[in-house]
Inverse folding.
DNA sequence: CATGGTTCCTGCAGGC
DNA sequence: TGCCTGCAGGAACCAT
């Protein structure tokens, strides 16, 4: 599932391959992933545009045009960008194809179609559609102390807070679990009871985990996440808790547990990651 | 307004 | 064998 490191791997691949290219053809094979004003309008808006180096905030990616507009993209669960020769076989679930002026194609592939593409008028610097998305920890302007304060002010729990893209962007279920394990913090730790030091540690750890993953090309479990050439990353080998139910914690040997959480999963070491003592009750 | 639950999608694994 | 259910999950959307 593409989270920040996976999206960044894709962005880097695209940067090398689409920067300066002009879009001279657009084919929408499936309407659903086009999240803007219908496929025909999208096609018209994209035709003839010259792409600059793709940019990223959190899990969002956008292609600025040389005229100030942009195409905004999100990979969702299973989205991929591929650069291919026009004659090559289409990957299953290819949704949109862009012909580039160097004779190659940029293809958007997405099995589950949680991802999508949209046109963003004036969005080259920052698409207005994502102005509510917080900075990610790799952004030069990311303010860790402000983020710590934001988290501690919430009436929620730590994992919900770091998954909230309006608080800090780029973190999904995998890196949330891995970060909380490394920071020895339970996913349900109440945000209001976090010390500033613990909140800071969780955020610093999240950046570390994602940086480590980036060095290995991201996390891949199957064909659902690959880079622009269709290759997988290797970080799945380094996972300590995510998907490791029943295996021994690499720190203490306790069996990793899977809890249902937010209609999905949370993996944790029940010994390393504990809840704070309950506050004295009113009764 | 803040918070948390629901929903969109497809393909695959596991049970019967 | 084949059908059915559950599960994977980002984020928009909706209800409280």
């Amino acid at each position: 599932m593409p989270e920040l490191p996976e999206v960044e791997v894709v962005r880097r691949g695209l940067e090398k391959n689409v920067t300066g290219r002009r879009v001279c053809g657009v084919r929408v094979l499936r309407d659903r992933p086009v999240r803007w004003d219908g496929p025909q309008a999208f096609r018209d808006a994209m035709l003839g545009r010259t792409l600059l180096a793709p940019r990223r905030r959190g899990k969002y990616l956008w292609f600025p045009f040389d005229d100030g507009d942009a195409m905004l993209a999100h990979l969702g669960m299973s989205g991929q960008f591929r650069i291919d020769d026009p004659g090559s076989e289409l990957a299953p679930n290819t949704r949109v194809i862009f012909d580039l002026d160097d004779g190659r194609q940029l293809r958007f592939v997405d099995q589950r179609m949680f991802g999508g593409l949209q046109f963003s008028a004036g969005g080259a610097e920052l698409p207005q559609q994502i102005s509510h998305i917080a900075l990610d920890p790799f952004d030069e302007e990311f303010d860790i102390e402000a983020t710590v304060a934001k988290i501690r002010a919430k009436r929620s729990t730590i994992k919900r807070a770091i998954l909230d893209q309006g608080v800090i962007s780029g973190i999904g279920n995998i890196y949330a679990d891995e970060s909380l394990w490394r920071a020895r913090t339970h996913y349900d730790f109440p945000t209001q009871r976090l010390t500033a030091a613990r909140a800071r540690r969780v955020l610093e750890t999240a950046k570390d985990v994602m940086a480590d993953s980036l060095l290995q090309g991201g996390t891949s479990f199957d064909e659902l996440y690959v880079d622009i050439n269709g290759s997988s990353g290797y970080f799945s080998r380094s996972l300590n808790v995510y998907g490791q139910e029943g295996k021994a914690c690499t720190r203490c040997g306790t069996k990793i547990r899977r809890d249902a959480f937010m209609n999905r999963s949370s993996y944790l070491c029940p010994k390393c990651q504990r809840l704070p003592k309950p506050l004295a009750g009113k009764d």
